[in-house]
């Protein structure tokens, strides 16, 4: 029954996007239909077909093995502080517990360097071109936006550098699409952070997060083209273009430069967590006192925390994507939390829910993992809008005006991805771990 609810949820989410569309009359239904079909085919391949299950397990195991390698540096630098809970080092010393700063965040630096190496030897550009070709031909998108969306599957805000020569001449709809894709997907370097936090409670999480990032990129195209349809003619419509990037002179330079970029990313994440968690705590303090008095005066007990209030807002969407009613409010609070406190805090809280068996249905954990996979939060709005505008300052006004719609499209895209996953959910070990 819940699989059918998830299937219906795909179209309900698209219908909601159409209701808030900037121009309902000119929606490109070819993009919508092909984008939805591609998601369904990929999900069918991953979750149902035996061959897809094997690929899923291979990707999951590969990411986990790479993550194990990433911890070598953190253990050398931070010693026992870098040991995951329940583990010991070569000298028999036990872990001191979980420390985000010493165990999870440093993996970003390693994965950033690894991506730099993959770019240098040509693997990443080839993968990006494959996805870009599919998007351009099947969905009749512009080559520039399809290339940027494809890059976002693997990297973060820097994805727009691959289309820098065309960025200044993009349409508003193209800007909405590339911003939505950036905010609905997860960079490979940060994906490692989520795997680290959830792997113990959710053994197959790495494979799910990789598939979620791919599905969300496609969902972002669909929702952005519904919310802000193309009314102009893009310069690269239907034309394949090559990625634009600056290649380092040596592989050592690629490792060094991307490690430094990883450090910047870690600093940025820490700064956002410090700022937003502090602001959220202040808001909770201010509204919590008033809410407590109102609860005492009425028979209705309301969660007046920021997380709780946003949970009420996202509750209908959580039901629509197929989360069982028994877990819907807990999952909706996580989605609401992601909107303001970033996905890092939301995944941390998901790990807590899983470790304490607070979610009654395994289905809820899978759908939550997909719904949270993306940078769809207020902080990334500033990051992606600001980062893109810095590349083409003459288009700042256009980029800024589509920013909020892109964030809405990205949020709906992650929900649509969860609904697609929920459509093919089953109790197999492939989905839940072994």
* Number of beta-strand segments: 0
What share of residues is helical?
Answer: over 70%
Rg value: 21 Å
Largest sheet: none
SSE pattern, N- to C-terminal = HHHHHHHHHHHHHHHHHH
Anisotropy-based shape = globular
Strand content: under 5%
Distance linking N and C termini: 25 Å
Number of helices: 18
Average pLDDT taken over every residue: 84
User: Could you say how many structural domains there are in total?
Assistant: 1
What are the segments in which pLDDT stays under 50 over at least 5 consecutive residues? none
Would you tell me the structural class of the helices and strands?
Answer: mainly alpha
Sum this structure up briefly.
The protein is an all-alpha fold and 434 residues long. The protein is built from 18 helices and no strands. It has one domain.
Reconstruct the topology from this structure.
Elements: H1 2-19, H2 29-47, H3 50-78, H4 100-104, H5 106-120, H6 123-139, H7 143-152, H8 164-167, H9 172-184, H10 188-198, H11 205-227, H12 251-297, H13 306-320, H14 325-355, H15 362-371, H16 378-391, H17 396-423, H18 429-432
Short descriptors:
single chain, 434 residues, mainly alpha, 0% strand
Report what the structure shows.
This protein has 434 residues and is mainly alpha-helical. It has one domain (2-429). It is built from 18 helices and no strands. The chain has helices spanning 2-19, 29-47, 50-78, 100-104, 106-120, 123-139, 143-152, 164-167, 172-184, 188-198, 205-227, 251-297, 306-320, 325-355, 362-371, 378-391, 396-423, 429-432. α14 crosses α15. The longest helix is centred in the middle third of the chain and has 47 residues, at 251-297. The model has no long low-confidence stretch (mean pLDDT 84).
